[in-house]
Task: inverse folding
């Protein structure tokens, strides 16, 4: 069944049990009300977008519809490239009420990789429905369960965002399972690729790339454990990754961890919560991206309300949890570091995971980042971090036809992204609520 008629699409989209969407290789002409130019960070007036076989053929002020083309009227909407989330964990979900190590090891030894991949498939659909058409998935997927999900999405068996997948992250001893008894260290090694010295670190890169990794994730420090990779180990990783034409991104929370990763020459730094201005200057100098995996106020409160008393936060207390992140983001922008949006959303907040992930963008707004800059961080900037520049995160000829329509103006109010009405990925329409109007 093809989702052509809006009213029919609503019925189809409402069914959680429908099969995957048939791949559409036809020709579509989109009449867009206004279009986000992600490279320049501005909205352009009305444009027509011609899509052929999953790829944007041309964009112009007026295009004639080719014979037999489907014509979609998005003239009432803000039209943007599909959003990119640069930091996901589709195969892992954690309750705020539970213990990190108990839940993390349970994912390995009870849930298991095949079921994790199937659960990941269900979560992947929610990202697509939220308007996120590409994700970079950074591990916590057992041994390469992420590759199975990526490939099933790619071959059309499963509806989901395009995935750039890391495989197991290269980590110091113990991964991120604090308190795991030493006799069971092998459990951590089912979830992380624990490395022992520069030669083994390079071997870890070769292993991951051999088994399908598109990007290398490393843990400069492996919080909440206390380990860290040496600069020599990270240099060996970066050298091997360059040889194999994959990028390297580093989990790094402390200033020292960021500085060491930056010195080793990684392409991106995740989190960077405690980064100092001097290290931000080093990142800027080396062209290293930052992915601020920040929480908006609503998410902090939601997390607390679902934690069964493990974590408490009143609205008045929220600033004490988020002020550090907000300050760090403002300092990074001031230093000229390029920001790529990434949610790191692996928490069960009682809402669709894709919707929860978008709250990351609202956190940037709470730090004072302008809406247009946020949209750029989630499109143009992220595409460059992922090595997919000019293919995703942009509406121009020869890019994949990843196109979303939003009610309202996300260029002045980023919360308009909560009203995604239409989602196309590679020419196939996955969400069409154009007839519904306001929520
Ligand atoms: Zn993460």
Result:
């Amino acid at each position: 069944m093809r989702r052509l008629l809006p009213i029919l699409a609503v019925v189809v989209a409402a069914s959680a049990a429908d099969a995957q969407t048939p791949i559409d290789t036809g020709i579509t002409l989109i009449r867009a009300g206004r279009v986000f130019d992600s490279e320049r960070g501005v909205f352009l007036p009305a444009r027509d977008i011609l899509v052929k076989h999953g790829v944007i053929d041309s964009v112009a002020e007026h295009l004639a519809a080719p014979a037999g083309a489907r014509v979609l009227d998005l003239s009432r909407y803000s039209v943007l490239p599909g959003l990119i989330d640069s930091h996901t964990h589709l195969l892992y979900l954690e309750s705020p009420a539970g213990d990190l190590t108990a839940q993390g090891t349970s994912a390995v030894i009870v849930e298991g990789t095949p079921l994790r991949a199937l659960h990941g498939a269900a979560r992947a659909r929610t990202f697509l429905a939220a308007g996120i058409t590409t994700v970079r998935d950074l591990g916590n997927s057992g041994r390469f369960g992420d590759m199975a999900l990526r490939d099933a999405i790619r071959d059309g068996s499963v509806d989901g965002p395009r995935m750039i997948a890391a495989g197991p992250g290269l980590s110091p001893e113990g991964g991120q399972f604090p308190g795991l008894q030493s006799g069971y260290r092998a459990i951590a090694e089912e979830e992380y690729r624990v490395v022992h010295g520069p030669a083994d670190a390079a071997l870890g890169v070769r292993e991951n790339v051999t088994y399908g990794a598109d990007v290398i994730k490393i843990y400069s420090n492996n919080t909440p454990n206390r380990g860290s990779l040496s600069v020599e180990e990270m240099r060996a990783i970066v050298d091997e990754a360059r040889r194999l034409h994959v990028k390297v991104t580093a989990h790094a929370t402390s200033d020292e961890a960021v500085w060491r990763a930056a010195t080793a020459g990684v392409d991106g730094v995740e989190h960077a919560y405690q980064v100092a201005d001097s290290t931000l200057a080093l990142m800027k100098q080396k062209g290293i991206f930052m992915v601020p995996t920040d929480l908006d106020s609503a998410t902090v409160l939601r997390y607390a309300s679902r934690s069964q008393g493990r974590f408490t936060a009143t609205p008045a207390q929220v600033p004490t949890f988020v002020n550090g992140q907000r300050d760090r983001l403002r300092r990074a922008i001031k230093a000229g570091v390029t920001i790529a949006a990434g949610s790191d959303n692996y928490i069960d907040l009682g809402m669709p995971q894709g919707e929860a992930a978008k709250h990351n963008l609202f956190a940037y707004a709470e730090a004072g980042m302008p809406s247009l800059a946020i949209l750029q961080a989630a499109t143009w900037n992220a595409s460059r971090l992922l090595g997919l520049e000019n293919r995703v995160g942009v509406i121009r000829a020869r890019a994949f036809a990843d196109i979303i329509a939003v009610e309202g103006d996300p260029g002045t109010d980023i919360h308009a992204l909560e009203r995604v009405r239409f989602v196309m990925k590679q020419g196939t329409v996955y969400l069409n609520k154009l007839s519904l109007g306001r929520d």
